[in-house]
Design brief:
Four copies of one chain form a homotetramer.
Chain A (H helix, E strand, L loop, with lengths): L19 H18 L6 H8 L6 H4 L3 H26 L3 H18 L1 H14 L6 H23 L9 H13 L13 H14 L6
Helix pairs in contact in A: 1-2, 1-4, 1-6, 4-5, 5-6, 5-7, 5-9, 7-8
Chain D binds a DNA duplex through helix 1 and helix 3.
Chain lengths: 210, 210, 210, 210
DNA sequence: TATGAATGAGAGTTCATTCAT
DNA sequence: GATGAATGAACTCTCATTCAT
């Protein structure tokens, strides 16, 4: 969203260059607490505690609690779409595209676990807020992407002809993202491994193939 | 004014049934609002507005906001387990059991949509609260039930031998219940129809079988 | 305050004749609860519970919580002054007057324990309320009565000449009435016995006389 | 801004002492209002008004209204028992002990008037609350202390042989402490003067000695 | 950069009171 | 006489936010 700090003369109240490391740290802390307790239930004081400072001090770094949430979500979505776009640009066949997208998604869950969980939980409530209109935009883009892949897959015989496309879309979408609620980075399964297993279930089912 | 039920056409033969009806109405309203905005973000005033009364009036019927949540969740879980237990008592083969459980689940989503959505969203935060310890109990029972069915299915050849049981359990669990977030009763698909489609994807995959 | 029901045609909402027994019962209950928990801390519902009815039902008998308090206090004060006036009319010597007044007071504590405790605790807060102006009146009358007796006693040599009259008045007043906070009717000491012991301490001191 | 106490004339050498001072101020204010209107009847807004701040601001300094009450009472009792213990350690004869204890009590009324009045009024209601169990403890210790002194006094001939010890204890206890309800610091009588007069009445009675 | 103290807008809850039945 | 349901004002407490230092 910001094409890198090439304009050092800008004089924003909120320093975007002064201590980016501290900002990132604080955002990571905030994301974790938000994810664990929910955005509303999380007090700004709790975040500050976790960061070893007082509540008021956070306002030197951020305009508001909402702007923290905003930054966390945009950070995640920018990253996610960069990966998705790379996959779509390569444009392999439908089955390979699904595989690549699901794998990319699990990698994002691995990198941005808290943000993903947060996104899952808060996204619906935030829909009406103009500041978060990009969430609806992303959702739309996401839906188009998946519906397109599924439609092409059915047309080309990669996927079953009797598939209810919209239902299958929801099935895929939910199935992948809820994983953020139980996934813990550094566990026994790597994101790629989980992706592989999920894909095998989704593509071929849990019943044995003849 | 009514000298006991001598007039069977009277609308309220048993006046002591009137109160529970009002309670149920209010709980339904509360569940909807909770599900839409989240438990924390929902004010007791909002529920009262929706019910056409003042905030304080709710306290004639309920002890607290929390006790409303409690009643909503127990109402749903009691109902759910009655159905599950019926299925488990019948004890058909693993594939039929999965089919029956998933179908029962979608029927519950149909009957208790708000409660299910609420359960999905709030259950994790409520874990630590002793009052809601039954949530953890239910979760445990649920997990045992599914792991058992899957294990038996793999052993008997009903399910693929290479299945990661725990992963498959999570996959099934999440896949079914998140549907509550988008399902709207009275839509184009009946719960049974959705269950059928989900089961076909879960059991046989989205890729065509040879 | 009401010279007995000689006007049966009166049509008050609050029936003063209909069921005087029930009223008295309810007032006794209210007085007890008020005395135990304090007027403010006592909910109208608590009184109703104790009386075996619902909160709203009390309003058939009384206009308000405050009017219950009012009736309790006037009932006590009317009774008290009837006794005091009898003593003052007899007008014996100062030492005998003190004896008679203190004995009468302990008898009132015995008969109206709850009302006395209530009076002790709430009287100061009620001072500003016009409805309870009779409390200040009573207090004034009370003070004059005691100061008069003490003054006469000092002048006549019945009491010590070096007595600080105002201090002695407060000493006597408080000493007697706080007993309501621990006195329980039906205990080992009769009111007369307690009065006798108190008088012996007050008049002659706890140190032995030569 | 102040590089440690190099400037002894600075008004706040130890900035960490500033906060306790504010707390003490606020507690004094709260105690006064509590004493005047009663704990229950006192709103937190009233205290805040009196302190020149908003109700919510009090919660920066205190956890709850109850914790203010708690601090006020413990502050008083700690102080009181320090004095009493000093008297008991010196352990003079019974008559001198009574004199010392009563004098100490009046001094405490002088220093903690509001707290004493509060203690008198609220102590009974607080008995059941575990947080205030120290009130019952103090009461017990207090009773033992007085009963002991009186018993020794009677045994040694310092007090009348016909004294009902328990009754005399209550008499002394109440007599002294109710004074808090009318005592105003800075009046015509010093605490020591009031103590002297009270003692003369209690020890030798109001009737003249032969 | 961070603190300490305060603000002000609500939140959940309580309770005396009303009133149709 | 009493009930059940509701009102509405007030209460304690929470929390995002501000700002002088």
């Amino acid at each position: 969203m910001n094409d890198n700090g090439t304009v050092p003369t800008s004089k924003k109240t909120t320093p975007d260059k002064a201590a980016p490391a501290r900002r990132a740290e604080l955002l990571a802390t905030a994301a974790q607490v938000f994810a664990e307790h929910g955005y509303r239930a999380t007090t700004v004081r709790r975040i500050a505690d976790e960061a070893g400072m007082l509540a008021g001090s956070l306002y030197y770094h951020f305009d508001s609690k909402e702007s923290m949430l905003d930054e966390i979500l945009t950070g995640f979505l920018d990253d996610l779409w960069a990966r998705y776009d790379a996959v779509l640009t390569a444009a392999p066949g439908p089955r390979e595209t699904v595989t690549a997208l699901v794998t990319a998604s699990f990698r994002e869950i691995d990198r941005h676990r808290a943000a993903v969980a947060l996104y899952q939980k808060e996204s619906p409530h935030l829909a009406g807020n103009p500041r978060f209109s990009y969430l609806a935009d992303s959702r739309r883009k996401f839906e188009e992407m998946w519906l397109g892949v599924l439609r092409r897959g059915v047309a080309g015989g990669d996927f079953r002809a009797d598939l209810d496309i919209r239902l299958a879309y929801r099935f895929l979408r939910d199935t992948v993202w809820v994983a953020a609620s139980w996934y813990r980075p550094g566990g026994t399964h790597s994101p790629e491994e989980i992706a592989r297993q999920y894909l095998s279930m989704v593509l071929d089912g849990i019943a044995p193939r003849p």
